[in-house]
Amino acid sequence: MKRRILTLFLAAALLASCLPGERAAAVDIPEPFAPTRTYAGQFPDLDAGAWYYENAVTLYELGLINGQGGLFAPDSEMTVAEALTMAARLRSLYEHGGSETGPGQHSGGEWYTPYAAYLQELQVIGQEFEGVYQQPATRAQMAHILANVLPQTLFEPVNEAAVSAGYANKNYIQDVNPGMPYEQEILTLYKWGILGGADRTGSFRPDGHISRSEAAAMVTRLVDSSLRIRLDWENPYSRAGTTMAELVDSDGAFYPAPALENGGEIDADVRYMLSRGERSITLGYPAGALTSAMVNQLLQNFLNTVRGYVEQTYNAVRCVYSLKSGSVTFHFSSSLYGDDELDRYREETMAQAIAVHDQLWADGTITADMSQLDKARVYFTWVCDNCQYDFSTTDTSMSHTGYSLFVNGTAVCDGYTAAYNLLLKLEGIDCTTVSRGDHIWTAAELDGTVYHIDTTWGDQTGAIAYQFFAMTEADALARFGEQT
Q1: How many CB atoms are located within 10 Å of the residue 10 CB?
Q2: Which of 136, 248, 353, 402 could link 274 by a cystine bridge, Cβ 3.0 to 4.6 Å?
Q3: How do residues 370-393 score in pLDDT, each as one tens digit?
Q4: How many CB atoms lie within 10 A of CB 90?
Q5: Count of alpha carbons within 13 Å of 209, Cβ hemisphere only?
Q6: 163: how many CB neighbours lie within 10 A of its CB?
Q7: What is the rounded CA–CA span in Å between residue 246 and residue 426?
Q8: Is the Cα dihedral 87, 91, 92, 98 positive or negative?
């Protein structure tokens, strides 16, 4: 037995794909999910013009929902117990042709216990929901349940390429992070076309609660392949439009009077400034608390910290302060070009780095299934292949910049490191610089392990010297000396 349905979608709603008022073509429900009853207005609050109307009717006729107190309650938050009950009925319908057959083999406990027990018997879930059955289900929890409730052989990853590239580059699904609970289940539903996201970047809002209408849309897409969303994310690998500021993470914390020795607070202040696209930091200490020596030490500490973000191009600072009031303002700049040129060089450097990043993705040199270590090695190779060390450099040479490496193909150690770090950060890889004497190189966290990488020395022989890629800290210090 088959049933033909019509489905409405919302473009801006989390789980929808077209505008209110647009109706998709009629489609057939597959045989394993044949209706078991007929909807005849059982939910007085279910408006026939609502975008979720056909979704709700379908779930009722499949025997997956019975409503809340005689109502569909579309905006009501679905509890974990309700989500598991709906999922258990769906699996039972698939396995037995009846939504209550499988759960009916279990008894005892609360009203939802047979449904949870049935899913546990099938290893759809474990014990992860113990103690939270009556709480509102989060979107992440719903994804976890629905991604596992039916055999995966029923689904085709129609959005595999778009989701893999878009997520790897943090262009899409930006509110889902590696290692967070149910990350893979969420991505799986995007790949299957069950999810489309809440906005143009495909946001999922994993910690938000899910309404009954949204859940209905998700489940009908599980049942009917013709309703699944084909993502039209354009160039999901591209980082076009990314700014220097967006490469710096800040939790918004700012410390107006960091202690001289508190490197964590100083770094937080620098990240706060950089993440806002600013060049100045103003501090405020108690009146009379500052001395000239303290200001000089603060200046040096802030300058050393900002140099750790070498790709941001700042390597000079000037200071305005008042010992009487305790006010200190640092203005960061570059010793290689004036303030009037700074933004232009930063923007052009970023544009060049994005072009390299996008091309390596477009031609398949970098793919979404590569590890961070593999990606970092690709960029190491690219830098060494596309640059020559500038043995004629001076203190005012542009070879001290990443701009020179990208545009002129020449650099010295700070130029090599600036360009390489910029490429890694476009890839979402956390990295910084290490300085020893008159030499700097990269320290990057790759797949959970910190490695030291020196593109400068990697490019000093006829062939690329990969012994300078992915060194341990001990290896790097043995080559380049103790900290100065």
Answers
A1: 20
A2: 248
A3: 999 999 999 999 999 999 999 988
A4: 23
A5: 14
A6: 27
A7: 9
A8: positive
